[in-house]
Design goal:
heterodimer; A: mainly alpha; 74% helix; globular; B: alpha/beta; Rossmann fold; six-stranded mixed β-sheet
Chain lengths: 299, 276
């Protein structure tokens, strides 16, 4: 564009300038839309590819079969059970610790220096890469506490991983309980603990559970920390107790993907479909809980 | 004991609020030189006042004058607000309620409170009233619990409206019913004193009238302190009125005298609506 004299107001040149600005506006909208569509297209392609490759392999047999050297006979039963077992135990460990920590921070220690220090650290922990938790789990649970490569060691490690998220979402849920409810209980002679236990917590439960499930649905896709602590890639038996060795879906998928035979790639795709279905189910439960919560609030 | 909604007597038809018994009743709440601070800001300055038993005392004054803050010092409700501080003495039945050894939980049971905005718990009507009884272990059996819930609901003049729906959510009640439920909830633990913080400010005139009727009936058994920004309401329900202004107690008198011949010019200007 060459240097031109600034046109006087009202001349046709100004009109042309504003047309160009409007054109730029529309152009930007179109670019933004294209970028969005590109991102969605990538996701759609991924899902379409997975379904194309895996749908044919997906069957009741595939879900209920034990692993095998032969791709056609191999099933997802053991890692599926392992994932559900590990994730349930993770929830059982993370829920009481996370809720207790959140209650302390939100209801008891809000203004103390210690509480503020803990808060900053929790926010930082939420951003720590998951493999670091794996190393911590290996050192602490597998070795120091002697849990070996058990379901308990895996669940404990994943519980550490989701704990910051559980604490943050529980605090959020506690904060939504109106002050007037607490005052109402205090005015009747309730102690702080009675107020929290019988009024505040019940009102916060759906919010707490929603946060927990969303955190767990992140943990269920984690591979790195579990490989670090030594979860197995080939387990021909179901985990029987928290001390059993185990495998989980993402590790099984990773294992199949890395095999040279074409048939195992189909198994991996089918495994991904199972993992996605599990994730969607968990998120659906979370949304259902939130809806129920909002309805009850409105009375 | 009231029941249902009998014909509501008009103000003119009622006996004069200041009955002969009132002036002689003993002092229930004795406040001496009370200062209250939110952080560095002094919200109450050197309040000294004696509130009598079995009468209704009203606190009036413009917004921000400290009347609600003062009310909340009487059951130590301000304790739950961080950064607040109290100086001076508050004696209830000759017990210093700011004594560090005092059991605050027990105090709040004896000094009940009803809030400006009705705050029923998101539970059933029955459970709302039963809550205070349960946490304080005041009912030994299920029958006693039921009996005391019913008694409290009757006292709060809401029994007839809710007796067939005790298991329904309290949140389904109307605003006025919710407020009477909150009064029933406060009465259930049998307090000696009932503090009411603008209990009718969010209600329509009919519901307000219900509440005022109720206050009038309750003073037989309770010492009632009510904060209101509605001067007509203070005149209708109270025996004594205290006028607060900028954190100070300006005047405290028999309601009748307060509204006809106040001693202070400031009070007169306020009750005649010249400011505030």
């Amino acid at each position: 564009m060459s240097a031109q004299a600034v046109p006087a107001i009202g001349t046709p040149d100004v009109e042309a300038g504003s047309t160009r600005r409007r054109a730029l506006d529309v152009l930007f909208q179109i670019v933004a839309l294209l970028v969005l569509l590109a991102a969605l297209a990538a996701l759609a392609t991924l899902i379409a590819t997975v379904i194309r490759d895996g749908a044919g392999r997906l069957s009741w047999d595939f879900i209920t079969s034990l692993p095998s050297r032969y791709a056609a006979r191999a099933g997802i039963f053991v890692p599926l059970a392992g994932s559900i077992f590990v994730i349930s135990l993770t929830g059982l460990i993370a829920l009481p610790i996370g809720v207790a920590a959140a209650i302390y921070l939100e209801e008891y220690g809000t203004r103390s220096r210690l509480a503020r220090l803990i808060e900053i650290n929790i926010a930082n922990l939420a951003a720590v890469p998951s493999i670091i938790y794996g190393l911590l789990g290996l050192g602490l649970f597998v070795r120091a506490l002697g849990f070996e490569r058990s379901v308990l060691a895996g669940a404990s490690t994943l519980a550490l991983l989701v704990l910051p998220v559980v604490i943050l979402s529980t605090r959020e849920a506690l904060r939504t309980v109106p002050m007037t409810i607490r005052e109402g209980a205090y005015a009747l002679g309730a102690t702080k603990w009675q107020t929290i236990w019988s009024q505040v917590l019940p009102m916060a439960v759906p919010g707490i559970l929603t946060g927990l499930i969303l955190a767990l649905s992140r943990a269920i896709g984690e591979t790195a920390p579990l490989i670090t602590i030594g979860a197995l890639t080939y387990v021909p038996f179901l985990p029987e107790s928290i001390w059993s060795q185990f495998s989980v879906l993402p590790i099984q998928i990773f294992n199949w993907v890395s095999r040279p035979q074409q048939e195992f790639a189909a198994n991996a795709a089918a495994g991904i479909i199972v993992l996605l279905a599990l994730l969607l189910t968990m998120n659906a439960v979370a949304i259902w809980l939130r809806d129920r919560f909002q309805k009850r609030r409105r009375g | 004991m009231t029941s249902g909604s009998p014909a509501i007597p008009s103000f003119a038809a009622r006996p004069k609020p200041t009955g002969p018994a009132a002036p002689d009743s003993p002092v229930k709440i004795d406040v001496r030189g009370l200062n209250f601070y939110y952080g560095d800001k002094r919200a109450l300055e050197n309040i000294t006042i004696q509130l009598r038993a079995n009468v209704v005392s009203a606190f009036i004054g413009p917004s921000g004058c400290g009347k609600s803050t003062f009310l909340r010092t009487l059951n130590r409700m301000n304790d739950i607000i961080p950064g607040t501080r109290v100086e001076g003495k508050v004696l209830i039945d000759n017990v210093d309620i700011y004594d560090p050894k005092l059991d605050v939980v027990g105090l709040r049971r004896r000094v009940g409170m009803v809030f400006q905005k009705s705050n029923p718990f998101p539970k059933s009507i029955f459970e709302n009233v039963a809550y205070g009884l349960r946490i304080n272990g005041l009912a030994r059996s299920k029958a006693e619990l039921q009996q005391r819930v019913e008694q409290s609901l009757r006292q709060a003049a809401i029994w007839d409206e809710v007796k067939d729906r005790l298991q329904e959510s309290a949140l389904a009640l109307s605003g006025g019913q919710q407020q009477r439920l909150c009064i029933a909830r406060a009465l259930a633990v049998r307090p000696k004193v009932l503090l009411m913080d603008e209990p009718a400010s969010a209600l329509d005139p009919i519901a307000t009238q219900h509440i005022e009727e109720l206050i009038y009936d309750l003073k037989k058994d309770y010492t009632i302190v009510i904060v209101t920004h509605n001067m007509q309401q203070a005149a209708r329900v109270s025996d004594y009125t205290a006028f607060f202004w900028l954190g100070r107690l300006v005047e405290y008198e028999r309601t009748e005298k307060m509204f006809t011949a106040p001693a202070e010019k400031l009070t007169e200007d306020y009750v005649t609506g010249r400011f505030g």
